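Here is the promised in-class demo. Please do not try to memorize the tokens; focus on the logic of going from shape to residues.
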């Protein structure tokens, strides 16, 4: 009902009487008033006048109703343990391709190697559930595509000098603004689903927990609509996946890369490796040149700059 009221207000773009809304939706004027009050509490800017109601500004919260054609696939929760956990359950139950799970905050947000991801109010935390028709060996290309899409969006739409760090961090002036995680399930030579979890520091302050982190609000000196950011990302990512050959996505990703030809340390659950980052191949494998001149290929890990 709230979505229908918003649609009426958006369509008219002027003051709409309570009688008009009541008649269109076949509900009482008291019900209209109650829904208007609830929408105002959700941060929709609705002016109430003796003649009716006018919508003058929408919320920055990524509610499903804000995504029109995507509404049925966007699932928003004020709080979750982890969007990745919820997405895994939904994927297992057969939810459709390009389903999105969004949380206002996470109690148990996590990064790579089971590190905690600070997930306070104001950030954008979501997981994409994808069902691509690709073999598992190509799955990393989708994660690199997501990283590339976000870095490109920050650069082109917000004039933020975002760069990427293997495997999928987004940095601005050396400080982390976004991180990504992925999970995959496959049967034989086909992917069943790939879940990509993304956390973006938007209007939150991550610095008290991570002094090497930064937010969009700190960079731009103003708040950013999380709904608009998510909408732009989903549109850009979907378009890229549909119309771009993923064979070349890693080579394009490398144009934004910070760690190539630099000394780095790679930490995995089993070992620590140091060397010169020589390249990243077409499937996302890092090519590391060790001190003795030998070459090591690394598929997963956490990357730290040494110089």
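The designed amino acids, position by position:
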């Amino acid at each position: 009902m709230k979505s229908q009221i918003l649609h009426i207000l958006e369509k008219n773009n002027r003051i709409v009487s309570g009688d008009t809304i009541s008649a269109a939706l076949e509900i009482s004027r008291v019900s209209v008033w109650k829904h208007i009050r609830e929408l105002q509490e959700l941060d929709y800017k609705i002016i109430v006048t003796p003649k009716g109601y006018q919508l003058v500004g929408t919320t920055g919260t990524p509610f499903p109703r804000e995504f029109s054609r995507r509404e049925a696939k966007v699932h928003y929760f004020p709080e979750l343990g982890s969007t990745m956990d919820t997405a895994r359950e939904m994927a297992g139950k057969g939810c459709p391709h390009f389903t999105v799970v969004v949380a206002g905050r996470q109690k148990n947000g996590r990064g790579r190697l089971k590190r905690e991801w600070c997930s306070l109010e104001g950030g954008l935390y979501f997981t994409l559930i994808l069902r691509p028709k690709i073999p598992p060996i190509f799955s990393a290309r989708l994660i690199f595509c997501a990283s590339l899409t976000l870095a490109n969006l920050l650069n082109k739409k917000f004039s933020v000098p975002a760069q990427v760090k293997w495997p999928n961090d987004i940095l601005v002036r050396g400080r982390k603004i976004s991180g990504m995680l992925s999970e995959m399930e496959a049967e034989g030579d086909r992917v069943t689903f790939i879940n990509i979890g993304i956390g973006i520091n938007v209007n939150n302050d991550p610095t008290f927990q991570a002094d090497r982190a930064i937010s969009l609000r700190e960079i731009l000196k103003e708040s950013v609509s999380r709904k608009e950011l998510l909408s732009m990302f989903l549109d850009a990512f979907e378009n890229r996946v549909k119309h771009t050959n993923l064979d070349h996505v890693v080579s394009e990703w490398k144009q934004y890369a910070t760690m190539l030809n630099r000394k780095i340390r790679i930490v995995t659950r089993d070992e620590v490796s140091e060397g010169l980052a020589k390249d990243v191949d077409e499937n996302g494998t890092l090519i590391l040149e060790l001190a003795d001149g030998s070459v090591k290929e690394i598929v997963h890990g956490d990357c730290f700059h040494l110089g």
